[in-house]
Fold each of these.
Amino acid sequence: MSRNYQYEVMEEIKKRWSPRAFDPNKPLVDEDIYPLIEAANLAPSAFNSQPRRFIVAADPEKRQKVFDALFEGNQLWTKLVPAFIVILVKAEDDEGRKSRWTEFDTGTSFGLLSLEAVRRGLHTHAMAGFSPDKIKQNFELADGLEPIAVVAVGYYGDKRDLPEKYQAMEQPNSRLALSDIIVE
Ligand SMILES: Cc1cc2nc3c(=O)[nH]c(=O)nc-3n(C[C@H](O)[C@H](O)[C@H](O)COP(=O)(O)O)c2cc1C
């Protein structure tokens, strides 16, 4: 399946999709991942509150702590993923003020992170299928930090290494037409 575009957009936006086949032979180090966090950190946020936080899990011990928190459906395809980024939301600022837009702001930062990854030849795949409580336990997170997504990061691998049911899904999926999402 290929995606159709009515208008021309940035190459990175066109190339981004969420694969499941990652290359286990190309491990990532912090220096590969920190530029992605840099991109995330440059995202806008309401009142510049910057409510997003990140755990970089590229070494085997941290990677395992994230893997153990994933739901089974995601563990099935993430065995070979070299690194994870856990995205956390800081629900209140240092003065205890809540914002309605913390999750909006945090999602925006993932958008930029995923595009910087593409620019560097990497892929990302966000996941909601994990236990936030297990992440909190495994990383002894401070109160007020809520895990909102886990992101698989790495270079593209070989889809034949995936369980069969995922091999068929290993292609960019479709989108609604602009006429379906622009509300008149
Ligand atoms: C917040 C969020 C949660 C997601 N959770 C999962 C998940 O638990 N497992 C999974 O395989 N994909 C997950 N996805 C990936 C989506 O299914 C995928 O982004 C969507 O189908 C669009 O495909 P694309 O990213 O290839 O364009 C998630 C994506 C987002 C943004």
Amino acid sequence: MKSRRLACSRAYGWMKFARTWTPNCVAKIRILPEHLVNQIAAGEVIERPASVLRELIDNSLDAGATKIDIDLEGSGRELISIRDDGGGMSRDDLLLSLERHATSKLVEGSNLFAITTLGFRGEALPSIASVSDMEVLTRDESSTAGCRIQLVGGDVAAEEAIAAPRGTLVRVRSLFFNTPARAKFLKADATELSHSIRTLRTYALAYPEVAWTFRHGESLQFVWPQTTLMGRLVDVFGSGIEEKVLHIEHTLRGVRVHGILGRKELNRRSRGDQFLFVNRRPFQSTSVAGVAKGALRDWLDDGEWPFYVLFLDLGIEC
Ligand SMILES: Nc1ncnc2c1ncn2[C@@H]1O[C@H](COP(=O)(O)OP(=O)(O)OP(=O)(O)O)[C@@H](O)[C@H]1O
Ligand SMILES: [Mg+2]
């Protein structure tokens, strides 16, 4: 009896204590809803139309595309469309690709230190989908019909089986329609467009074996067929560039450096025409820019920067 009373009074004590503390004990931490998580991730991955273009180009290249057709409307916020002839996806894979952290590229942790693809996080498609009206049409070799899916702000709005060539078409419309704060940070249309064109030129230089077309609105801007690096330099910078460059090819301790350096005639007043690729991934490095400037100082006047397209291949067998 005594012990029961004791138990009761202890329980009563706890209840009183709990009641006193309840307001502070209500859990404040919540798991965020999926669409919000994707929008936050999009804030990191997708800064502007050119970031969408870069992510979609990465995906097409990783899928083994030999031809990539790009269409932009306006600044790219209105429409970014990219069609490739790569491996495509089955319906099941397409649905999975729209989930966060779903990737076909990274299977286990040890791969993290030997990544050979441009993407590996499994974040790009769901991030883009969460801040736009996105449509994906795709078919892989083993599927008889293609699959088309449309997502608005990350929610599935339509899905259908449809005839399609092998490969993938992604159309992104109304970028940042549901994140006005992000849209406000965009620059003038012409500036955003120039970022996208720079992205396209950069990838076209790194992947000359891929054919690229680029259309802006009604106007066909580039048709660049499959070629060599030198052929692509001519496509991007015009004929005559062949005589104004030096070829570089050097391998030391597992690092291969190759590409071209511009002669004096190609010196620039800004660093805009310095293209660096690490394992064919576009890369910006002030230290490489500084080394190139130092090495070529005899050719450079004050305020001039060298022109280069350099590839650093790391981890190659010697
Ligand atoms: N154009 C495409 N062709 C074929 N498969 C694609 C294409 N785009 C995406 N995928 C598939 O969808 C998956 C998810 O794409 P997503 O871009 O979201 O992630 P990722 O490329 O794996 O990594 P990251 O977020 O670093 O880009 C890819 O791993 C790939 O399997
Ligand atoms: Mg990707």
